[in-house]
Amino acid sequence: MAPFSIRRSRYLALAASMVLAISACSSGGSPSPGASGAAPSAAPGGSEGAVVSAAPGASGIGGDVTVWTAWGGQELKSFQEVLKGFDPSVTIKLQTVRDVSQIALNVTAGTTLPDIGLPPTPDNVAEWAQNNVMKPLDDVLDMSDYTTNTFPALTTCSADPCVGIYVVGGKHYAAFVKSQVKGFIWYNPKVFTGTPPKTWDDIKAVQAPSGAKLWCATFESGAASGWPGSDDIGNIVLRSTDPQHYMDWYNGKLKWTDPIIKGAYEKFGQMVSDANVYGGTNTVLTTNFGNAGVPLFKNPPGCLFLEQATFITNFFIDPKYGGDPNLKAGTDFNFFPHPTIDPQYDGNVMGFADSLVMYNDTPQARALMKYLTSAAAQTTWVKQGGTLAARKDVTDYPDEISKNAAQVAAAAKNILLTPGDQMPADMQQAFWKSVLDFTNDPSKLDSILQHLDEVQASAYKS
């Protein structure tokens, strides 16, 4: 089995033994958030509310359930479509809460918590379990079905507590409901009609059309600005070294000034240089990550390639982010896997997963948690596009892109964690800021990495 990154986490001290072959857990070919979720699916701060009302006269358990998620835009619409399959007698009060600290603030203040919501940051997992802030799910879910059909890395861990998958005292406190793969290179097949580049040198050699740039990249995401670039750097690192060195890096055991990490920043610098990136440095630093793909579809095109996770297709079709709802997977956008840097590490792939926690034990919350982990719910979810299942037995994907994404993960030797999500908060913030600082002035790379070494020296002490 292979581990998945848990979106929006801060410090997942996962053992090296969790890096195992994906083939051991990928029957059916479905691979594994942010947002829980690594890279955030939306910028922290702000909220969107919605009520999914009970059907008049519907029979069922009735009542209501309050749900907080980090999903907005197309991701929220997809979730609402999934909820249509739930007990129609229950009113679902749905809120998008992009600030992952909000639940912790409510816990500290003793104020109202949602019935179902985002999981805590790893530093709170054991305490919240012990204090019954979040409720164990072992008598809520059909655990035989859940552990058999959900990717093993999301249900099984030798450590206790295993904060990465929210297992404390042998009990499960989070339910994993969907997943993503990172590091794909997205393009418009009507613009880029050549053979997908196989290596880093191949992609550098591609000639963009007159007036266009090779890359699109945008890093603005509120307090989390910089995370898309940190994912780009992570993808370069995991294709440049073995899993142990990669994990040593995010666990604070490999210096940022190490040649492996410095080399990754230098390659990343090739992507975001003024010569190669759409709009130049200012556009990269000030444009929201959700708008990154817009230039792919301009006429004339602004860029050829965009590196991002499978969820980015939600933004391609979302008008709120400059997207076009008429764009079609395969016809208007497609992807190819991250290019080879060192062939011996081609089997390394980055991924993450979304989970939900039950804060109030009610019949409605129990029923919804059980539904969301079902094959029926996750099949509906993947049919909306832009995501993959958390269950390995869900294979009915809506288009060739989703099927191909699942195949990439199924063929991977290792699905590795998103590095920034596994770091302590101070280290994570410094990493994200380093992305912005380096993009703004790459000549300062040595001093940037030295500063990261200094942060590392103190961030892992607690």
Please give the radius of gyration in angstroms: 21 Å
Beta-strand content estimate: 5-15%
| Unreliably modeled segments | 5-47
Q: Judging from the principal axes of the Cα atoms, what is the shape?
A: globular
Tell me what the CATH architecture of the largest domain is: 3-Layer(aba) Sandwich
Number of contiguous helices: 15
Description of the molecule:
The protein is built from 15 helices and 15 strands. It has 462 residues and is α/β, with parallel strands linked by helices. Strands 1, 5, 8, 13, 14 and 15 form a six-stranded mixed beta sheet that branches. The protein has a four-stranded mixed beta sheet with strand order 10-11-9-12. The model is unreliable at 5-47 (pLDDT under 50).
Short description:
The protein is α/β, with parallel strands linked by helices and 462 residues long. The chain is built from 15 helices and 15 strands.
Produce the secondary structure layout.
Blueprint: E1 5-6, E2 47-52, E3 64-69, H1 73-83, E4 91-97, H2 102-109, E5 116-117, H3 122-130, H4 143-149, E6 167-168, E7 171-172, E8 175-182, E9 184-187, H5 200-205, E10 213-216, H6 227-238, H7 243-250, H8 259-271, H9 280-286, E11 303-308, H10 312-316, E12 334-336, E13 348-358, H11 363-372, H12 375-383, E14 388-389, H13 400-411, E15 414-416, H14 425-440, H15 445-459
Parallel strand pairs: 1-13, 3-4, 10-11, 13-15
Antiparallel strand pairs: 2-4, 5-13, 6-7, 8-13, 8-14, 9-11, 9-12
Helix pairs in contact: 1-12, 6-8, 14-15
